[in-house]
Amino acid sequence: MTKTILGSIFALGLAGMAFAGGHESANEGADLAKVESCIKCHEMMGMSLKGSGADAIAAQIKGFASPDSRHDPVMPGASDADIAEVARLLNERG
Q1: How many Å apart are CA 9 and CA 11, to the nearest integer?
Q2: What are the domain boundaries of the chain?
Q3: For residue 73, which of 87, 63, 86 has the smallest C-alpha distance?
Q4: pLDDT in tens, the chain (94 residues)
């Protein structure tokens, strides 16, 4: 049940986000807006990601796509660059 609830929260939070490849026109303000739902959910669960390490967070995000993962996928279809930027922001702020 927890997986279903978390999956719903992530799906709702990510529904309006578009993760396009590349960062030529991206800026931190836009990227921070993308991760607000992640930060809010993690705060509600008492599981801040701040200071966890951007590389570790990125690895977790990628690992959630594995069929062996017990966690619903987060950021499906996101490029490695998008995942790295979101992980950096979550490490700094979230």
Answers
A1: 5
A2: 2-14+27-93
A3: 63
A4: 555 455 544 444 443 343 433 343 345 566 677 788 888 888 898 988 899 999 999 999 899 888 888 888 888 888 899 889 889 989 998 7
DSSP string, the chain: -HHHHHHHHHHHHHTT----S--SS--HHHHHHHHHHHHHHHHHTT---TTS-HHHHHHHHHHTTSTT-SS--SSTT--HHHHHHHHHHHHHH-
Can you spell out the DSSP letters for 19-40? --S--SS--HHHHHHHHHHHHH
Which one-letter amino acid corresponds to residue 4? Answer: T
Token look-up 């993690």 returns 42
Q: What is the pTM of this model?
A: 0.64
